[in-house]
Amino acid sequence: MKRELQTVRGVCPHDCPDTCGLVVRVDPATGRAVDLRGDPDHPFTRGFLCQKVANYLDRVYHPDRLLYPQRRIGRKGEGRFERITWADATREIATRFRRIAASPDGPQAILPYSYAGTMGKLMYGSLDRRFFHRLGASLLDRTICASAGSAGCDVTLGTRAMIDPEAAIHARYIVNWGSNTAVTNTHFWKVEFEARKRGARIVTIDPYKSSTAAKSDWWLPIRPGSDAALALGVMHILFREGWQDQDYLDRYCVGGGQLRDRVLGEFSPSTVARITGLEVADIERFAREYGRSQALFGGPALIRLNYGLQRHGGGGTAVRTIVCLPALTGDWRHSGGGALLSTSKAYPFDDAYLTRPDLIRPGTRTINMTQLAEALHGELPGPPVRAMYVYNCNPAAVCPDQSRVLSGLRRDDLFTVVHEQFQTDTADYADILLPATTQLEHFDIHGSYGHLYVQANNPAIAPPGEAKPNTEVFRLLAREMGFEPELFEISDETLAAGAMRGTGGYGYPQGAAFDDISLDDIKAGPVRMNLPKNWAPFAEGNFPTPSGKCELYSEREGRAGRDPLPHYAPPHEDPQTRPELAAKYPLQMICPPAPSFLNSSFVNVDVHRKKAGQVTVEIHPLDATPRGITDGQAVIVFNDRGRFRATALVGETVKPGVVVTLGIWWNRYTADGANCNTTTSTALTDLGGGATFFDNLVEVAVYETASET
Ligand SMILES: Nc1nc2c(c(=O)[nH]1)N[C@H]1C(S)=C(S)[C@@H](COP(=O)(O)OP(=O)(O)OC[C@H]3O[C@@H](n4cnc5c(=O)[nH]c(N)nc54)[C@H](O)[C@@H]3O)O[C@H]1N2
Ligand SMILES: Nc1nc2c(c(=O)[nH]1)N[C@H]1C(S)=C(S)[C@@H](COP(=O)(O)OP(=O)(O)OC[C@H]3O[C@@H](n4cnc5c(=O)[nH]c(N)nc54)[C@H](O)[C@@H]3O)O[C@H]1N2
Ligand code: SF4
Ligand SMILES: [Mo]
After folding, report:
1. Per-residue b/e over 18-43, b at no fewer than 16 CB within 10 Å?
2. H or E element at residue 8
3. Helices marked H in 48-126 — which ranges?
4. Which segments within 601-696 are labelled E, that is strand?
5. Is the pLDDT of residue 1 over 80?
6. Which sign does the torsion angle of CA 86, 90, 93, 95 carry?
7. Largest alpha-carbon pair distance within the chain?
């Protein structure tokens, strides 16, 4: 007899703009999830999942799941542990934290370290933040991914570049700018294809022939880190030809005249060609097609900009500059036109309720997470970092300047707690290793950075072993520390309901986006926020900047001692401006994630690791030949920071002078125990203090083994 399966609605928790709806089927007799698929009733993600999460039960029921608290018995990094109880684990953590807090170094010697291993509001940031604020620990500036672009957008728009992603079917010229949309945002790629069926052109600006570039109508292989120059060149042509929307500029923008003078004076197509490595004719064509999309293709232009172009020294300014473009063309007026970076700011979640910033002691220092290497080596102002609590993150694999991160994690005087689903590279360095639940085993609520739905994740199965959700671990730790029960003895559902009573968010009208949406509503399925269909937020200005207008000229930037106008800031490691460095390390290396991994998640799941194959480096024949490198050969990639091994793929997926390796491998699955982040730097972006993973000069050489004769 066939048993009736129980159906549970969930949400994919991974750091991905799509935030897919899930339907999990559970066998009530065994309590086991037997099927997981996309929620066909989700209006944006429409029932399909990426290949990684389509096989999610492989990850949830993986034999390597951490099941019990453990204490380290081997050397740091060796990964040998013994089982202990939760009571032992929390007592030991609280004792160590109390001792450090009472020492002359004080509680700021304790560093919480987390990112977006899960995007759920509760597990991403709620009782954890309250706990560390209450403790007086150092604050963490979470810059590793999106802060440069956020800061860049804020200068020009006062919020993120956003439109209703579903409205993008109305765009007729779609530019994937530093965005591997087909891989990193597959459901939006579907929308782009739908628009293409209706007549849209798809263009991709990327130094790498990514899957997106390969499937686009036109690929513009720009030199890494030079995107602001291209945007300024496009503006030059728009003003030169009189193609600007003067009415939009006059009504809704400040600084149109100053910007015009700057670009006409300094960014001629030939100057821009020299900086970007693109042909003048291509720059002219791009400006014409982009600027005249209505006339040529019958609809507005849309820039889908993403994170690739931000991970360079000038990444903040590049985003600031690119998001000026839709004001010049007036594309913001039209549904589906404008620019899209992230819809996250449309959600009015009450983050202050969840995280309680009022508990932060005045004068508490902030550590930029990108500079973990410096933090662990005592090179930042303030007391040394003597304890670190890691969750939702795998810094041993994903942080720049990896050799120094690992030598820091190896410090005997550092007390490290890692709360994880798996024994990651970071977990190997833990003193106390705690088991975490996966999304199928806990409750959470979700916004999205790629659509406008609000969703709840209902737990489908019981946690394996003694795994616990982040919130529960901080309840236990707060109890151990004797912290106020009224701050911590709050159920996840209560926290979720409170988070939904926020009044912020860039809404229409402000703060009303969650009106009449209850927790019960979203438990039953995805609910679209109260925003008009085909929402075009800046159609009539309404920019939440100090002037209320789109700030092409920024007084705030001027006051901060920076250029008040958009400009081009070259990469830190740029062959054009750093010829002495380029003489030693001539190749600009880009290292985005492989399609079958999600950052470093899924690397330990065999089917995904097999799909990714091996660590490769793509190199142009004109760079390979003089180095004696042939296709398929073992090579090393190196600079002064470090080196890693790879297999060369010789071809024209990159231009001469650029190499690409896909990540983010766990070190233990690489040939020398080191991934590409051994070569990346902790230098920061010009705005937002962001990471500069793709701003990295290297050399590549044939790998010669010592045993070779
Ligand atoms: N499958 C999969 N999906 C993911 C992720 C994943 O790991 N795997 N990660 C998720 C996360 S955390 C994020 S932040 C997003 C990232 O989403 P994307 O920003 O789309 O991802 P990336 O592949 O990092 O970068 C996009 C492209 O930018 C290009 N690029 C690099 N430098 C430059 C430059 O100077 N100029 C221009 N124009 N392009 C440049 C790269 O070659 C790359 O093809 O994806 C999310 N989605
Ligand atoms: N070379 C290079 N480096 C990069 C990038 C790149 O493109 N190239 N991209 C950067 C970017 S964009 C990002 S966003 C970062 C991402 O870096 P990370 O934030 O480290 O992301 P993941 O590698 O996915 O690791 C997340 C970890 O959180 C764990 N986890 C998941 N859910 C939970 C939970 O509920 N509780 C707990 N306690 N743990 C959980 C997962 O098991 C996983 O090991 O990497 C950055 N590093
Ligand atoms: S990783 Fe992204 S595309 Fe894949 S299931 Fe999750 S939200 Fe959807
Ligand atoms: Mo990211």
Report:
1. bbbbbbbebeeeeeebeebbbbeebe
2. strand 6-11
3. 51-54, 56-60, 86-102, 121-124
4. 616-619, 634-638, 643-650, 658-660
5. no
6. negative
7. 79
pTM tops 0.90, yes or no: yes
Cα–Cα nearest to 252, from 545, 544, 542: 542
Nearest to 679 by CA among 571, 599, 587: 587
pLDDT for position 178: 98
Residues facing residue 649 across a β-bridge? 618
Measured between alpha carbons, how far is 492 from 120 in angstroms, rounded to an integer?
A: 11
Of ligand 1's atoms, which has the minimum distance to the CA of residue 179? 20
Q: At what angle do helices 227-241 and 315-322 cross, to 10 degrees?
A: 30
Please spell the DSSP secondary structure of 270-290, one letter per residue. Answer: HHHHHHH---HHHHHHHHHHH
Phi-psi region for residue 448, left (φ > 0), alpha (ψ -120 to 50) or beta?
A: beta
The SS3 call for residue 524 is helix
Tokens of 188: 């939006």
For the domain 579-705, what is the CATH code? 2.40.40.20
Per-residue pLDDT reduced to its tens digit, 602-660:
999 999 999 999 999 999 999 999 999 999 999 999 999 999 999 999 999 999 999 99
Architecture in CATH of 148-341+544-559: 3-Layer(aba) Sandwich (3.40)
Do 695 and 314 contact (CB within 8 A), yes or no?
Answer: no
Do the beta carbons of residue 457 and residue 445 sit within 8 Å? yes
Select from 49, 184, 449 the residue to mutate for testing ligand 3; criterion: most ligand atoms less than 8 Å from CB.
49
pLDDT at position 508, please? 56
Tokens of 128: 């954890």
Instruction: Tell me how long the chain is.
Output: 709
Contact between 403 and 674 under an 8 Å Cβ cutoff? The reply is: yes
pLDDT value at residue 511:
64
Please state which CATH number belongs to domain 70-145+349-437+466-507: 3.40.50.740
pLDDT digits (tens, 9 = 90+) for 100-156: 999 999 999 999 999 999 999 999 999 999 999 999 999 999 999 999 999 999 999
User: Which of 115, 186, 307 to probe ligand 1 with, by most ligand atoms within 8 A of CB?
Assistant: 307
Residues 423, 632: Cα–Cα separation, whole Å: 31
Ligand 1, atom nearest to 660 Cα: 42
For residue 600, report the distance from its CA to the centre of ligand 2, in Å.
Answer: 6
Taking the C-alpha atoms of residue 601 and residue 618, their distance in angstroms, rounded to an integer, is: 23
What residue spans of 198-255 are helical by DSSP H?
211-215, 227-241, 246-252
